[in-house]
Amino acid sequence: MPEITxxxxxxxxxxxxxxxxxxxxxxxxxxxxxxxxALIASAGVVGDSTATVxxxxxxxxLMTPILGSALAFVLVDRRHLIRSVLLVVAGSAxxxxxxxxxxxxxxxxxxxxxxxxVASRISPHLIDLLAALATGTAGAFxxxxxxxxxxLPGVAIAISLVPPLAVTGLLLEVRRFHDxxxxxLLFSTNVAAxxxxxxxxxxxxxxxxxxxxxxxxxxRLRGTSLASVAALLVLVAVPLTIxxxxxxxxRQLAADAGPAARAWAAGHGxxxxxxxxxxxxxxxxxxxxxxxxxxxxxxxxxxxAGAGDAPLLLHVVGGASLSCPPRTGxxxxxxxxxxxxxxx
Length: 344
Known about the structure:
Blueprint: H1 6-16, H2 25-46, H3 50-59, H4 63-75, H5 78-106, H6 116-119, H7 126-144, H8 152-158, H9 162-173, H10 177-204, H11 207-213, H12 223-267, E1 271-278, E2 281-287, H13 295-304, E3 312-318, E4 322-323, E5 332-333, E6 337-338, E7 341-343
Parallel strand pairs: 2-3
Antiparallel strand pairs: 1-2, 3-6, 3-7, 4-5
């Protein structure tokens, strides 16, 4: 592993430590890019545009104070640690506020119910923590090694920082508070992973020794401080583990309910369009012509299939619609129309 020199430490601190004051070029750059990234991400989420959201990831500068917090922690530089943490907190709140404002202006009538950008950020799992740990490691490694710094834009795309915050603001505006909390949890997971892996990489590269050799003042790094960072990672891993277990349970529940639902529908001449499960509830949509099949038969079929403890929401789409061309005086049956029924 190449040795880190004092010059490398100076380059890293110059890149990550943003000096205060509105005349500071680093601070004005941070806030300008952050607000623009928040607007781009919010617009991309509202429009369900993956390309636009990726653009926001590239522009967003939140990675700088987050890694700055990790570097200041390793150097025990309390002044820059407090500044970096405050920038992360204030920047996060600003992105949420921008998302809320954009949602107030242009939230869709369905409250993002069918939005893939929202759906991908409101169900964080352990795999998200694993990805964040790998991405944080890559970011810290690219920063410490000047010869691989070209990888940083790819790291910015890989880690999801501004989009979850924008989703949080958008969902708060439409009063989907639980899902907004899940999006905020995804952001918190990524921040904790970046700080934890950043500290680890900087310690492996012996940044403290290089800083001391260059005459930079370095404080004493206590074991309790390192333990607190490890505890932070464990803290975010707990809800992610719970979410992962819930998703695994729902997948098994849908797999058990599917064959029973299809057999029940076929017996009535109907067709199953979808079988899904979320939060322990089975959602089934069936299509066909009247009369509608008896939902109690489906309930009994699910009980037999091992899904007896799961509530059931049955969407029955049937009947007929009439097509009436102009000036003909005649109408014809063309398509089915929808209704819904529930059974639990």
